[in-house]
Amino acid sequence: MANRLPPFASFFLLSLLLATPSSNSSPTFPIPINNDQLSHLQFYIHDKISSPNATAIKVAADPSGSRASTTGLHFGSVYVIDDPLTEGPDKNSKPLGRARGFYSVSSTDGSDLYFTVQIIFTDGVYTGSSVAVMGRDPITEKVRELPVVGGTGVFRLARGFAVMKTHAFDTATGDAILFVEAYILHH
Description:
This is Dirigent protein. Keywords: Apoplast, Secreted, Signal. It holds the Pfam family Dirigent. By secondary structure, this protein is mostly beta strands. It contains one helix and nine strands; from the N terminus they run αβββββββββ. A hairpin with a 6-residue loop joins β8 and β9.
């Protein structure tokens, strides 16, 4: 007596066979191979926690508020940001765009942030394009490196890194100006 597949197994195998893409199909967006460009960008991020006109707002915090911190930032705190980007360190220098996203205090001593930010360009050759930066920001270190993990517009399929330095920090208010130098490979 011959073994037969149950009807549902036959249907499953037939569906799998029909769902397999053919080798003749082409991608929706053709991607050029080995046609990468390297962009080197420099700008300043103005992170203002203090009022009035704060650009970084604390949206979550340790409910007990009991954790001590050497940086003034407390483990578990989350800040949502819409920080201005400028060409120079002065807040009145040429605006280039915005840094939008959030950062969270990810170390119990307050020395590390987890940074998830979209750098959105609103002026210059990159207008309408953006770069995604995500990773650990050890804020007590003089120079920090964060990965560039993607982008839009000119920076589609971006990858690279951003070197960040604290240009100025006001210990009374928590406001900071960060210098960012990014090296970005993109198509």
